[in-house]
Design goal:
The chain is globular. The chain is of the alpha/beta class. Helices cover 45% and strands 16% of the residues.
């Protein structure tokens, strides 16, 4: 796939628009910001590392001449998320991209009582959406969420909502993405002013896939580069969500086996009513 040709055929100018991106300094987020900047969008970088954000900001301004603001945002901390929302409202945005994610990290319980993987990947992004919806309704804005094929790994468990009892980070990650994806579908069922796009990049070489022991990662790194798409190309699936909304149980990702190729909209298998009931109850409790 030729990224430049795809961009010329499937995108248009974002001049005059402002897009906020969580997890904006690494992997998919970094490449996504470059694509957005190339299309003329001003950016708000939401990241937990202020030094990396400022460096990324300087690079984007130098190469693309756009306006860039940074907001330090710690997704494990709900107050940090709420503060970020207030700052975003002051700046004004047209779209919010929920890109940040945590996979294999040291596990602990957050102040909310949730496992930190669940908090970072689901509870805090959903809180940010809820906080910003009133603002985005004024601009007919957009929410673009990054999901994962890992959401298929397991079903919602009402007795272990955040998979705190599971030792597998893969299961905890997949569960959190399952909650995020279907909670947003539920939230947007009656939304008529803000559009939603659920996207996924397939499998690509990012910080999330570099969690293996160093020896193993050294062996698989180059084969992964050959087999799977680069972050630059994988990020196009997320970018397509900026231009094309999804209806319920639709998402945008690589067309071949969900891991390679041009972005394509596909149908997702709907959840059982029992799972949706649990997700709806938990989602309703996410508030400041």
């Amino acid at each position: 796939m030729n990224a430049k040709k795809w961009l010329s055929k499937n995108t248009s100018s974002l001049q005059g628009k402002t897009v906020a991106v969580t997890g904006s300094t690494g992997g998919i987020g970094r490449e996504l910001c470059r694509h957005l900047a190339m299309l003329g969008a001003d950016l708000v970088l939401l990241d937990r590392n202020p030094e990396r954000s400022e460096k990324h900001k300087d690079e984007l301004k130098k190469h693309y001449g756009i306006n860039v603001n940074c907001i330090t945002t710690e997704l494990e901390d709900t107050q940090s998320v709420i503060n970020a929302a207030r700052n975003i409202e002051k700046m004004g945005i047209d779209a919010l991209i929920l890109n940040a994610g945590a996979y294999k990290i040291p596990r602990h319980e957050c102040s909310t009582g949730y496992d930190n993987i669940f908090q970072i990947n689901f509870a805090s992004p959903l809180l940010l959406v809820k906080e910003l919806l009133p603002h985005l309704r004024q601009t007919n804005g957009k929410i673009i969420a990054v999901s994962s094929i890992a959401h298929r790994y397991s079903k919602v468990d009402a007795s272990d909502i955040d998979f705190k009892a599971r030792k597998s980070c893969a299961l905890a990650y997949g569960n959190s993405k399952r909650f995020l994806t279907f909670s947003l579908y539920e939230l947007f069922k009656s939304e008529d002013k803000v559009t939603l796009s659920i996207t996924h990049p397939g499998i690509t070489l990012t910080n999330i896939t570099s969690h293996y022991p160093k020896i193993i990662f050294a062996l698989i790194k180059n084969p992964m580069k050959i087999i799977f798409m680069s972050p630059n190309k994988a990020s196009l699936c997320v970018l397509k969500g900026v231009f094309e909304p999804c209806s319920e149980n639709e998402w945008i990702g690589p067309r071949l086996f969900d891991i390679w190729g041009k972005p394509k909209k596909k149908r997702l298998r709907p959840l059982s009513s029992a799972e949706l009931e649990v997700i709806s109850t938990v989602s309703g409790s996410i508030e400041k």
